[in-house]
Design brief:
Layout: H1 2-9, H2 11-16, E1 36-42, H3 47-50, H4 57-65, E2 67-69, E3 72-73, H5 79-88, E4 128-129, E5 167-168, H6 173-179, E6 184-188, H7 197-202, H8 237-241, E7 252-253, H9 261-265, E8 272-276, H10 299-321, H11 324-327, E9 331-337, E10 351-355, E11 363-364, E12 368-369, H12 370-381
Parallel strand pairs: 1-8, 1-9, 2-11, 3-12, 6-7, 6-8
Antiparallel strand pairs: 2-10, 4-5, 9-10
Helix pairs in contact: 5-12
Length: about 400
Amino acid sequence: MYRRYLVLACVGVLVALPLGATEPSVPVGKFGRLDHVFLIIMENETDTDIIGNPNAPFINAYARQANQASNYFAVGHPSAPNYLAIIGGSNFGLKEDYWPDWAGMGCVDHAPNSRGCEHPLPPIAAAGLDNAVVATARDAGQCNGQISGGGTPITNNCALHDYPASMYTPESIADQLVRSHKSWKSYQESLPTVEPALAGVNYSDGAWSNLSPAAAFAPAPIQKLYAVKHNPFAYFRNIQVGERPELSLQRVADFDGPDGLWANLQGQMPDFALIVPNQCHDMHGEVKGGTAICGSISATQSGLLMAQGDATLGKIVTGIKASPAWKRGRNAIVLVWDENDFTNAANRVVMLVETSYGANGHVSTEPYDHYSLLRTLEAGFGLHCLNHACDATSKVMNDLFGG
């Protein structure tokens, strides 16, 4: 906490000095280095919705095989701030699932009746103040976005800890990896393929999909399978501008294609891979834009949606474990959900870790959250901690990573 008070007291110094000069020591883990991390993020399910659910046979079998964090929490609501928390240790001032402003272009919106461009987030490029998040929220504003459900607020319905608004360093783990001569990539299923490639990611409402027969600029509605709110690196100015190929949207790829996830698993994988299925395969559901698909209104629909996500995870994990990268060095598969289902319940989600170098099958009851995950990844890669990953409450998850 000392670092955070120091930063708050010295904002002018923080902005004036090189970012590296303000970074604290490298987090120390007991599990050694990591060569490859395959981080898979899924959507909007409380842990009790999945564990024991017959519609998720792969996940339940995998939870017994891998190491399981049984007391793991998201950091507020809704999706986008949680994704930013995992890769940057802060919500960077983002509320709701608002889209990014694009450097030199502004916010792009091609969706009818969309609200995504009402409050776009300026490209993250300078130190600033993030949004406060409380552990137990009594209204939506306290939780940085949305929360539903009436009655007496449930403990930890928003987060594991209270996080007062704090100054942030405008970086992500991608910046850290590149400085350490390591590689990263964000694999986004159903990423738009309109040309130029930059514009494909720029359609921040996710309305343009490579699964649609519509031309890139056709007026017909199409499915929003990809969504930028699940692509956190796209919110950073240096990655939008892409002055360096290793820190650019060139590091964002679809699952399919010659440089996509499936192709890379057969050859060369980055040191850090963020893997995000599309909104029909990540358990988010309710994909709109064209004919409504993968709904979750009825119990039958919810069961089918979970089954789709479960099958997708089975395919991804099987592909990773068959890859050359998994067979070399010290590697970890991390499977986590971004947040619960917005009910007035504890914001506890499933979090599983399988390593290639140690024993698996351990169940941890230690309280962790997304900031703990970032701190642990930084410890494994030998990186400095970022933002709330530096908090005293953000513990390295040694028991889950084989410490």
